[in-house]
Amino acid sequence: MASSAARGARIELRGVGVTYAGGAVAVQNVDLDVAAGEFAVFLGPSGSGKSTLLRTINRLIEPTAGAIFIDGVDVRTLDPVVLRRGIGYVIQAVGLFPHLTIGANVGVVPALLGWDRARIAKRVDDLLALVRLEPATYRDRYPRQLSGGEQQRAGVARALAAEPPVLLMDEPFGAVDAIVRASLQDAIRRIHRDLGTTIVFVTHDVDEALRLADRVVVIAAGGIAQAGSPSNVLAAPANDTVRALVGIDAESRRFAETRPLLDRADG
Amino acid sequence: MSFILRHPDIVAARFGEHVLLTFVSLAIALAIAFPLGVLTARNPRIGAITLATLNVIYTIPSLALLAILVAIFGLGMPTAVVALVAYAQMILVRNIAAGLRGVSPAALDAADGLGYTRFGRLVRIEIPLALPAIVGGIRIATVSLIGIATVAAWIDAGGLGTLVFEGLHQDDPDKIIAGSVAAIVLALIADGLLRLAERWTSFRSLS
Predict the structure, then answer these.
(1) For chain A, domain boundaries
(2) Which of A46, B43, B111, B203 is 20 to 30 A away from residue B19, measured at CA?
(3) What local confidence, expressed as pLDDT, does residue B202 receive?
(4) Which candidate from A91, A112, A144 shows the least CB-CB separation from B207?
């Protein structure tokens, strides 16, 4: 699996802004470099603009200012449909297509790219195994026959189907209970390590951000309040906004401190 | 019932005309209603105007509509087809639009994010998920058209209504009953088959 996977791509945001038609500013003047293979987490309260910022990367939202480059290519020079087929996308509501089997859902992007049946079938089975859904058991089931956690595993598999160098995840584990969330977090960390995909992950959950991120990007009021390693953000909050979000959360500290252990444990 | 037993060939021929009239009208009506339904679902303002217009057509009594259309197109089956197509629009467009509007936003967001084209998303995701509502509309439209098509015999469109009108003129209750019963049977068969289709599509697209 790891050997066949594409390497992660570098993402650069340059002065990115999103102003809605009515004049409301969702995102303002964001500059950010995400290194190839990095796991970046946008952390912020609801309404901070973090999801909007994420959705500018695959052009589901067009920035009204600035530019975005993936491996040096301005995304505006690409057909949005072509761009999106090359970027994995996972959302909180999962959005599996209820009329398609899990196998067909996972194979959606390869089918859009015109792969032949045998290659799609092989890829689907590999991906289901990667997210720990036994292919023989799950391939022919429908989404409604899966639990919430299983559905999101299938959602992750679908996003990775065409070996995208970039994976965008918008609060992907926000709708499941704590135990399932922890197991999904372990799964995505393992997949990130194995595939080297660049991941941009949005959450409002401090524990989740500290647990997953190579770099935490704290978003507040449409801009970057602080960007740094989890321990850096935790130890030296840049301002009161960041401190309010992460500073006094004992639970978060505990997670941050146990992280090295977890990294070894699930490896 | 004795007319059916004495002249099964005549009843069968009228039955065939009735089926043809109904399904030709339905096919044309669907070809028009699909784009209108998509437009209605996508654009609330145009949609409101479309539905209001179709609703006006739908409320015109069938005899009155046929009389108006005869003045324009003359007697015969093509005129009846125009009337049936017009009647079916209201039911079909409303159901197609409702079905498309009912598709979950998560499925649409995922489809966009995965890189479906607009047309690909409509054909592969939205229409399949709207299918129970669309088939429901087709069922109601079909049953309605079978009924209205009976009246269309009045403008020489053929079909089972011909037996009813002939029976009325010739004071032949057997003939009236033969036409009526055959029309009822046709409506029940169509309703039953389309109910099965509706159930099958609901099962498939259940979330």
Answers:
(1) 87-163
(2) B203
(3) 83
(4) A144
